[in-house]
Amino acid sequence: MRNIKFFDTTLRDGEQSAGVNLNLQEKLEIARQLERLRVDIIEAGFPASSKGDFAAVKQIAETVRTCSVTGLSRSVRSDIDAAWEALKGGAEPRLHLFIATSPIHMVHKLRMTPEQVIEAAVEAVKYAKRFFPIVQWSAEDACRSERPFLAKIVAEVIKAGASVINIPDTVGYITPKEYGEIFLYLQNNVPNIEKVSLSAHCHDDLGMAVVNSLAAIEHGATQVECTINGIGERAGNAALEEIAVALHIRKDYYQVETRLNLQEIKRTSNLVSKLTGVVVPPNKAVVGKNAFAHESGIHQDGVLKEKTTYEIISPELVGVPSNSMVLGKHSGRHALRNRVEELGYTLSEEEINQLFVRFKELADKKKDITDDDLVALIFEEKFDHFNEFYQLSSIQVQYGTNQIPTAVVVLKDGKGNEIQEAATGAGSVEALYNTLERCFQTAVTLLDYRIESVGGGRDALAQVFVKVRVNDVETSGRGTAQDVLEASAKAYIHAMNRAVMIEAMRGENEKVATT
Ligand code: KIV
Ligand code: ZN
Q: CA 444, CA 388: separation in Å to the nearest integer?
């Protein structure tokens, strides 16, 4: 059986999703989880694009030991130099070089002739080979490129030393049949093509990213590029979990193997969704909340009699837990630490101690602490207070049916100053957010507000997700508390702290346009 390599680009193309900006710690956590999932390659970012990206790629390359870590690079020496500096400490450094090859991109974006594009691509691959043992070359907008030109440039970059050739459907335009044909065309028209690996990279603008990736595999691709939950530019990239499970469940048809640990899929999906703030739709294949729910009576009856009547994927295959462990107020630090480890989180001694305090506080108010509660607390402890400028000291909100909602907030800023403000609003959340805006002394536009309960029960934890715009920075925040208003305040402050950090990194850290 052929082996298919999974190239995960959640941290690069996925992070290009609107409103998603992960900090270093969050990226590192996702990279560690991708390592557990056993993807083959992690694209950790675009090192030349910003100092933040450079630092994240470097740290991920130095941390991850059992996957190859790569970074994106334009076909220019300065990008390649930055990528080498970031990636050289990796277990198997590789470079991902790209240049556009379609007439539309060459004429309007690059303003280069086809000959100039070939020259730049070849020169970049040759230069990259001085440093990198593995160079992957991508023809941006390959699917709208002229096939003879595509074959010509691919032949040249192979001669120059590229060992992986990626054929992106950058704008999500191709159909499965046509995509398969491009792979066959290249195999029939490019000398030495059998010496390199062919890779698929699909976007989902027409909802065909997964099926196109599968078509590429059927027609000779041995690598697929995808993201967790299908996040990415515009409509997103091909969803890793869908391709992986399709290959597994229909092994009889595809006849390929992967090295993925499918049981880590659900956990990876949850982590990426929580950290990016991008919701997984309930009906999403493989990882949606309803992916294994049988609703109709006929289906339920069938499944009770024999699971395979209506269930082609077992929840256990992708790591959906069949039971949730419950801790309570008598559980000790040891039990807590064990459960945290069983859930797959690595916490330092100090983080465990802080988590234990939060756990005890919650256990005093809530009888059963479930795995979901614990994960919510871990997230708060591990990620939500990272590099924070504003810290919540207290809130007080007054609401009555015939009164004007009023909020008072006390915050501490990064310089140790205490800030106290009060304001009103049409509702309690608006009053709270108006007050916080006064504290920040900056206009904040609320783009989205979502609230959900962590598990069931009237005493459940509330989790609030917000998307905001501060000046021209769009970012997200989340907050967890038993009280919905406290959770709302925490989410707003979390988003503001991210915006402060992003703005602080601006200037020296300007993102360049990628694809
Ligand atoms: O979609 C695309 O073309 C890309 C390339 C940079 C590989 O993401
Ligand atoms: Zn892409």
A: 17
Neighbours of ion ligand 2 (CB under 5 A): 13
pLDDT in tens, 25-82: 999 999 999 999 999 999 999 999 999 999 999 999 999 999 999 999 999 999 999 9
Largest CA distance in the chain: 79
Q: Is 115 exposed, middle or buried (0-12, 13-18, 19+ CB in 10 A)?
A: exposed
- Tokens 């990620």 belong to which residue? 383
Among the listed ranges 267-271, 308-312, 488-492, which one has the minimum average pLDDT value? Answer: 308-312
Paired residues of 164 in beta bridges: 136, 197
- Kindly give the number of the ligand 1 atom that is closest to the alpha carbon of 237: 1
Pairing of strands 164-169, 197-202: parallel
> Where residue 324 falls among pLDDT bands split at 50, 70, 90?
low
Query: 500: part of which helix (H) or strand (E)?
Result: helix 484-505
Helix (H) or strand (E) holding 35: helix 24-37
Cα of 153 vs its chain's centroid, Å: 32
Q: Model confidence over 405-430: pLDDT tens digits?
A: 999 999 999 999 999 999 999 999 99
First-to-final CA distance of the chain: 34
**Alpha carbon separation from 387 to 25, 307, 411, 444 (Å, rounded):** 10, 48, 15, 20
Closest residue by Cα to atom 2, ligand 1, is: 170
Structure confidence at residue 323 (pLDDT): 65
> Which phi and psi (to 5°) does residue 36 adopt?
-65, -35
| Alpha carbons 509 and 498: distance in angstroms, whole number | 15
This prediction's pTM: 0.91
- CA–centroid distance, 131 to ligand 2, in Å, is 25
By most ligand atoms within 8 Å of CB, the mutation choice from 70, 201, 202 for ligand 1 is 201
pLDDT at residue number 104: 98
The larger pLDDT score, comparing residue 315 to residue 509, is at: 315
What are the start-end ranges of the H helices in 409-483?
A: 428-440
Q: Which residue has the tokens 């479930």?
A: 370
Q: With 50 as the cut, is the pLDDT of residue 515 above it?
A: no
Ligand 1 within 6 A of CB of 170: yes
- Tell me the DSSP string of 173-204: ---HHHHHHHHHHHHHHSTTGGGSEEEEEEB-
